[in-house]
Write a structure and sequence with these properties.
The chain is an all-beta fold. It folds into 2 domains: 102 residues, Cadherins (Immunoglobulin-like, Sandwich); 96 residues, Immunoglobulins (Immunoglobulin-like), CATH 2.60.40. Helix content is 0%, strand content 49%. The protein is built from no helices and 18 strands. The strands form 5 sheets. Strands 3-5-8-7 form a 4-stranded antiparallel sheet, with no helix packed on it. The protein has a 4-stranded mixed sheet with strand order 4-10-9-6, with no helix packed on it. It has a 4-stranded antiparallel sheet with strand order 11-13-16-15, with no helix packed on it. It starts with 11 loop residues before the first strand and ends in a 28-residue tail after the last strand.
Amino acid sequence: MEVEFKTKGRRGRQEKTIRVISNDPDEETVILKVSAEIVVDFGFEPDRLYFGRQTKAKPFVKSAVGFGEKIGEIEELSFEWEEKSHAPFYDVTITNVGSGKDKKVTLEIRTTDAIPVGRFRDALLVKTNLKPEPYRVYISGDVLGLVEVLPRSAILRQDKESEPYRGFVTLQPTNGAKFNVLSAVCDDPRVSVKINPPDDKGAVKVELSVTGDFNEERLQSQLHINTDVTEGGDFDLPVYTIRHQVVNPYPQHSDYKPYNSEKRSKKPDR
């Protein structure tokens, strides 16, 4: 038996178990323990930085610390973004002080005012004199505009088989911002859209429903919402339906029908 241990993203002592099942009547199942000591020449901890969700009012800041068996041999450090056009969105500071066992390498990433509203996913490539390939640090987060929409998709559910499909999304202001919903339109004309007045907190509920007879297995479309907010105020959301299904507790009886108390027969008059 040959065992391959994938070491990507791992370091230090690692232990795994393998369950081997055979036709041996005396010992049908055998548990094998696999262990390894993974030595890393250099890397950053953590190598995945989640910045969270916040507005552009203040910058996102995250840091990581260098580690590894060869950290004392690092003499040169440089970096670039995998998506080079995203470089203006971040300020990066890498410090490399000390020598030998006292060597310390730290990384700090700070967002700038240039970062756009919305979700961001990027990778920082850190180059050293240790090897030609760069070390990667992945970052992600959400920059909130003056308004955000929740949830990020419009799910239209059918609670009962005879009822229409209904769903909604809510536009909420951040930091007490003021906004107006200008339009909300679905690509599928069978989906009607209603924009409700703002509530006492300024949130606007957008309701959706499927009009007419809809007997298809699934509906998929897009909802387009436009507001008067200049940056990050327009949203394109997926729309799909979830059909009500009756679960048959007796699968051996294919003609099973759920009990309906409203349709039970009346007792004959005496």
